[in-house]
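Before the break, one more example. Copy the sequence into your notebook; we will annotate it together after we see the structure.
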Amino acid sequence: MTAPEFESKRRKLADKLQRRYDLAADVTQAMATVPREAFLPENQRSSAYVDRPLPIDDGQTISAPHMVAMMADAMDLGPDERVLEIGTGCGYHAAVTAELVGQNNVYTVEYSDALATAARERLATLGYDDISVRHGNGYHGWPAHAPYDTAYLTCGANAFPDAVIEQVRVGGLLLGPIGRGAQRLIRATKREDGGLEERDLGGVRFVRMRGAP
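Here is what the structure looks like once it is written out:
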């Protein structure tokens, strides 16, 4: 498949997602801009714009486009907001986020050293070299750049990690797949007392978060 063919499929999928989920215009544009095929292994690239998760390295997956779009829309991100991502994976979700807030406002933590290294190199090759990628335990967040306006998980956890909650500013947002068994996509606002005001956005299924609190 040629680059123009990928671009055409990307635009068509972005428009389809916009109609189905009533996405904000900037989210639709981000989905139409980031080349998902470039984040996939060679043998998966022909399926880049089929709306489903796909396997990447180290037993992990790249999320389905509709899930990335829905999460971006739910976060209602604006330019220059500082964002913490837990679970870099191949780097695709971070690139979409960077289209919304600016590259130098995205900080992403990946448990797998191999995935973190590959994502950092891939993002740089694609022009997203100002996204900050760190190999580490996502349960600890990335305190050096706190406070964050928003933090999100791209992997399932029993609860939002305490350290990540602490690193989000009061009034800031957390989003992620939460649950010990069945996962629910939870959108939470941090209260002044440090607690969370939660909203359930529905059932989801993500790979489990690795590491330990």
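The helical segments are 3-21, 25-33, 65-75, 92-101, 113-125, 162-167. The chain has a mean pLDDT of 96. Try to locate both features in your own notes.
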